[in-house]
Amino acid sequence: MSTQRIYALPVETTEWKFDGATEIQFNWEYDDGSDDLLELYDKGKKQQWDASTRIDWSMELDPDNPMQLKDEAISIYDTDVWRKMTEKERSWLRRELQANSTSQFMHGEQGALIATAKIVATVPDMNAKFYAATQVMDEARHVEAYKRLLHEKFKVAYPINKPLQTLLEQTLTDRRWDMTYLGMQVLIEGLALAAFQSIRDKAGNTLASAVNAYVMQDEARHVSFGRLALRDYYPQLSDAERDEREEFAVEACYLMRDRFLSVEVWETLGLPVDECVKMVQASERMKLFRTRLFTRIVPTIKDIGLWGPRIRKAYADMGVMSYAEVDAEGLLAKDEQVAADFDARRRQPA
Predict the structure, then answer these.
(1) Against a cut of 0.90, is the pTM above it?
(2) C-alpha dist (Å) from residue 58 to 101, 152, 272, 305
(3) So where are the chain's domains?
(4) Each residue of 23-59: pLDDT tens digit?
(5) Which CATH architecture has domain 34-52+66-347?
């Protein structure tokens, strides 16, 4: 099935091109780099999996609420707009919102696929090249899994939204290898982990939960990869260089927060877009969700040494400074355990 046929909104072109100028780095020392990265590479090799066999694609989704999420999670729930909707319209809304978020996951994973291929080419550390090569395969698998979920189960998809498109372009057009790490491994992947977790832990549908649980197992390694590489590199930079990276991180965080306004869905369903966006921004549920998106990002940013006044002020303004003390390693370990628990349940006799 062509993806063009299931997009809810028109896509002007099937291709998106820009100049991703870069500097390719070869390294003729093959026993070079961090031992921690080499261990992560070994782990990445051992944890490869097949999306066709590890996930039970025979499971069906409820067309009225594909992921079996509670209506209270919808930002316009119990507003005047919601109360005026018929039950059929609410079913459409559930399906479209869930399809849109899954579509953005899929597009983000393609961005990660391209970014990680760039990291293989640009990073100077040989052990980092080794690990990044395993991540390229991870990202291809993630695109495959979300594509199957949209094509075979939802049968509707949404184009990439503007905030994600802008952030990907900023990340991929910078020539410096560490900026690709920062944009993708720390910021985009960190936010993805928090968004995936929301579905993994709250979806009543096992298929939707499993896809996100297995993707998260890989993403936990990816965030560790960015943290290990940048934690050693950023102390070597000048104050001006670190300040520039903090400015990029602040702008990226605001862009990512705006990814969840669902403008495309309100437009598709013919709902009052401006009114719905205002309700999303005012929703206490969405405010809580949008702050929790930074659970994985804030402690990593602090750990890699981008912790100057600008970034601390931005996080204070967003209400996410408390996440600086989160046990990021503990969360990543839990992600791996949850995926193992899904495997164990699949092996149990029916």
Answers:
(1) yes
(2) 22, 10, 37, 46
(3) 34-52+66-347
(4) 889 988 888 778 899 999 999 999 999 999 999 999 9
(5) Orthogonal Bundle (1.10)
